[in-house]
Amino acid sequence: MDRFDAMQAFARVVETRSFTQAAQTLHMSKTTVTQLVQQLEARLRVKLLNRTTRQVNVTADGAAYYERVVRLLADLQDAETSLSSAAAAPHGRLRVDVPSPLARLILVPAFADFHARYPEIQVHLGVSDRVVDLIDENVDCVVRGGEPGDPSLIARHVGDLAIRLYAAPAYLARAGTPVHPLDLETAPHQIVGFLWSSTGRILPCTLRRGEDSVEVRGRYALAVDDGNAYLAAGLVGLGALWLPHYLAAAHVERGELRPLFEDWSIAPMPLYLAYPPKRHVGARLRVFIDWVVELMAIHAPLPARG
């Protein structure tokens, strides 16, 4: 039995709660993973996992062993990385999932710079606004707007997106220009609804002016769960919408969108990069995180620390 392979197989089974999923992410057969865990249990003379036909749960002994295994595997990878870093640049495949507008307008246009720095890294970029199961789908990290929905993930605050309300000239010509944010709650006004992936509900908007604060939900005819579709609906005049500055700026400049309620403010939307807990951050993920932080310092800077 290769003890390293056995410990790695055991750790991945604990993380995925599935021998099948663990085998897929390790590129092994399910039989091999099962045998490695069984051999590990035989060597340790302790039961690490409880198996049923539907799920796999870690035992108390297994949980304690898992904590030590994860640290050991991370230390081993650190040792290998430190010895080889002088001779080899970060390399390998990185799986990332980001919102579609962020990919289209910021990450993809800048990707040539990342590739020039790290030509040996291959990035598989998933483009979506859906909730991603990082472990089951073997995704290294995600970038998402809003507070992290899964508290178990390790999340790094990489930017703050400036938000405003906008509407297309065609919408304003038909419905008139709303004077107060609450006008969007009554006819003839309406919004384009954005379905928040973590809840499946329409995302409300809170506006402030001095001591006044109002939450706008709005009437809507169409709700979507994708950023590009949301923008497209607003551009054809289906309703008012709240957008980050980077997504609206070019359309405002061309006269395709007009800002609303300029004397009201909306709190910035935090942007987070998140990755699975207890997974070692290898060189390729580390340099990708650093690159995203650089980009967001330009497009969605965090407030200066006083």
Automatic annotation (TrEMBL):
<comment type="similarity">
    <text>Belongs to the LysR transcriptional regulatory family.</text>
</comment>
<dbReference type="InterPro" id="IPR005119">
    <property type="entry name" value="LysR_subst-bd"/>
</dbReference>
<dbReference type="GO" id="GO:0006351">
    <property type="term" value="P:DNA-templated transcription"/>
</dbReference>
<feature type="domain" description="HTH lysR-type">
    <location>
        <begin position="1"/>
        <end position="59"/>
    </location>
</feature>
<dbReference type="Pfam" id="PF00126">
    <property type="entry name" value="HTH_1"/>
</dbReference>
<keyword id="KW-0804">Transcription</keyword>
<protein>
    <submittedName>
        <fullName>LysR family transcriptional regulator</fullName>
    </submittedName>
</protein>
<dbReference type="InterPro" id="IPR036390">
    <property type="entry name" value="WH_DNA-bd_sf"/>
</dbReference>
<dbReference type="Pfam" id="PF03466">
    <property type="entry name" value="LysR_substrate"/>
</dbReference>
<dbReference type="GO" id="GO:0043565">
    <property type="term" value="F:sequence-specific DNA binding"/>
</dbReference>
<dbReference type="GO" id="GO:0003700">
    <property type="term" value="F:DNA-binding transcription factor activity"/>
</dbReference>
<dbReference type="InterPro" id="IPR000847">
    <property type="entry name" value="LysR_HTH_N"/>
</dbReference>
<dbReference type="InterPro" id="IPR058163">
    <property type="entry name" value="LysR-type_TF_proteobact-type"/>
</dbReference>
<dbReference type="InterPro" id="IPR036388">
    <property type="entry name" value="WH-like_DNA-bd_sf"/>
</dbReference>
<keyword id="KW-0238">DNA-binding</keyword>
<keyword id="KW-0805">Transcription regulation</keyword>
